[in-house]
Amino acid sequence: MMNKGKALSLMLAATLSVSALTACGGNNNKNGAASPAASGSAAASGSADSGAKDTITALLPPVSPTYQDNFDQMEKDFNAKYPNLTLKIEPASWEDMTQKLDTQVNAGSPPDIAFIGSDGISKYVQQGMALDLTDVATPEMTGDYDATPLEYMKNGTGLYGFPAYMEVHALGGNKEFLEAAGIDWKNVQKNGWTYDVFRDAIKKGVVKNGEATSRYGFVFATAGVASKDYLGIMAKSAGMPAAFNKDLKYAYTSKNYLELLTDLRQMIDDGSMPKELSSVDAGKRWNMFLTGQTMITGKGLATFENSAKKNNAKIDAKDGSAVKDSIKVDYIVLPVPTFAGAEPVSSTVVDGYVAFRGKKEPTAEHKANIAKAAYFLSSGKVAATTNNDLFAAHITKSGREAAASMTIDRNPDNVAAVETMLSHAAPARPDIPADLGAKAIKIENEVIVPKMQALLAGEIKPQDMYDAVKKAAIDAFGQDGIVQD
């Protein structure tokens, strides 16, 4: 994203996604870099013999803080499992991952596997470069995954890879501040909260020194790579889990959308959020959280608990690399509130190992080997190690089994809270046609994001933004193609 989350490896983004989950940081390990061979070229090394030697290439970013440190071991373990196969990994940074992949795709010689957000699959399907693994993904492979995250790797009827994790976009709270404000955070973790309850809670978290605010109740990153996150995440728990309803009508023309926009502006007007919210990026909001300038932060990912623990340890050790002026924080995972009387629907990011083809159709043998490699990377020991590093929930049976023998210092209340949120995760929508999805993305980039920035800055009113979005939607989808309630 997850925006990928940058935040997953160093405290996210953000989420960003190659998705918001993973878009806010990471190292750039260039050691041992190998140029990926074209899928077509690699296919030539395969043959009809099941034991034929073959090489599978993979372009992989720093999925977790220690992920790229394990590349050599991953390659060795894969070869030990499949002596006739070689896994050749090329490291990439989050910053150059998309550019590298697109350059190789445009040249007709992509890697066999690339780690990307599931929301990017349709782009490569349209280009004819994504590889459908449906006929080579064995029941043993597909049966290992939880059903919901696996659905995210589909487009139409095709299965284009395997998921690495399903991460929840939650909120994060400072336990000391929550309890000082009288907030029963354990009850919130179990039962959630409505916007009205949330609004009242964050008001109690504000600390003022005269006219100046030294601590806000709530801060959410809304600038830079996080510009799409705030509204998109909140909309899911406002009765709009996707840009289109099940009848494929554009959803953001619903009356709930206007109510949501009104609520998001209201929290700034209350003084619970900074007036300068539109300029707060992912790095600044995390700095504000660690320095005690906000009680609750967003978007919050499970790995933030780990990041907070590491900063706490640096404070105890009087390590100069601790965040400047930071305080010790006991990080608490919190759900997003519900709006407009809607049921809770968690915003999730599913990233994973997507298969690609070159200009030539790969042989059946090579295609099957790609599936083996993608499954190897997304299950068992590799998945357990990576997800534990991220504090992400395990989504394969084999990953859970491998993780059982691994130690991890994680708040059990947070683990349970994430599991609860995952239980009502937004469903995958492979049924949304690519042309409709493309139009929705255009509206998002050209109308929603700039109007949201203006709304947060106090330059326009919620009704103004709603009217602009509705006009753009009617132009794109027609009167009959939008929700009118």
From TrEMBL:
It comes from the Bacteria. The lineage of its organism: Bacteria, Bacillati, Bacillota, Bacilli, Bacillales. Keywords: Signal. InterPro entries: Bact_solute-bd_prot1, SBP. Residues 1-22 form the signal peptide. The keyword Signal applies. Coiled coil: none annotated. It holds the Pfam family SBP_bac_1. SUPFAM superfamilies: Periplasmic binding protein-like II. This is Extracellular solute-binding protein.
